[in-house]
Amino acid sequence: MHVVIYCQANIDSQGNDLQAIKLTRIAESKGWYIKRIFQEKNCETSNIASRSELKSLMDYAKKTHIDVVIISEIFAIGDGVSDIVNSIELFHDMGIGIFINEFNLLTFENGQETSTSKMLFKALSIGAQIERNQRLVRQREGVEIARTKGVYAGRKKGANATPDALLKKYRNITELIEKSDLSVRAIAKKTNHSINTVRKVKQLKDL
């Protein structure tokens, strides 16, 4: 298999080099051909937007045939559960698996998600929902604080739709969620809706 290695070790360049050496040995032990190594040179924060090499990797993957991206740990590809889920979906939609060394896990093989990765993905999706709920709690707390200060005007009338109304509005998304194993990103592409819209519909279906 043709693979690339992605290293991300905060601001420690020596740690980055050691990570690259370790992952290279793992690839060689499996008989995988390494096409390129991407190393974050100055990743002072876990913010995904600051990872220029990860962006370069994704651009490279769109133009060059690769089968697997090798990473040391799962948080290398995201600063939170939602980011990790999005990154995995993006690579899977390109037919690329991710080998996560800390779990000794390959997420995608022979054109489909592996059984173990499906369980991991389900756990990550639950984590993403928890993150979303926490954001909503913080948002509500912020609204209450704003109301006490008299600076919150609220949404315009009619801005909120009931769950049933949303499910009815996005019936094509609902049917694909029920009848297919497509990823959120693949459903968004197929229905011409945003990933956030598909994810919101999926969350309503799971309630």
Task: Describe this protein's structure.
This protein has helices at residues 13-29, 52-63, 81-93, 115-148, 163-169, 171-179, 184-191, 195-206, and strands spanning 2-7, 33-39, 68-71, 97-100, 105-106, 108-109, 112-113. The chain has 207 residues and is an alpha/beta fold. It has two domains: 2-117, Rossmann fold (3-Layer(aba) Sandwich), CATH 3.40.50; 161-207. The strands form two sheets. The protein has a five-stranded mixed beta sheet, sandwiched between helices. A two-stranded antiparallel ribbon has the order 6-7. Strand 1, helix 1 (13-29) and strand 2 (33-39) form a beta-alpha-beta unit. Helix 3 crosses helix 4, helix 5 crosses helix 6 (171-179) and helix 6 packs across helix 7 (184-191).
Write a brief structural summary.
By secondary structure, the chain is of the alpha/beta class. It has eight helices and seven strands, in the order E-H-E-H-E-H-E-E-E-E-H-H-H-H-H.
- Choose one word for the global shape: globular
Number of domains: 2
Q: Name the CATH homologous superfamily of the largest domain.
A: Resolvase, N-terminal catalytic domain
> Any idea what the CATH architecture of the largest domain is?
3-Layer(aba) Sandwich
Strand content range? 5-15%
For this structure, what is the CATH class of the largest domain? Alpha Beta
The total strand number stands at: 7
Which structural class do you get from the secondary structure elements?
alpha/beta
* Rounded radius of gyration (Å): 20 Å
Reported by name, the CATH topology of the largest domain is: Rossmann fold
Number of distinct helices: 8
Q: How far apart are the first and last residues' alpha carbons, in Å?
A: 40 Å
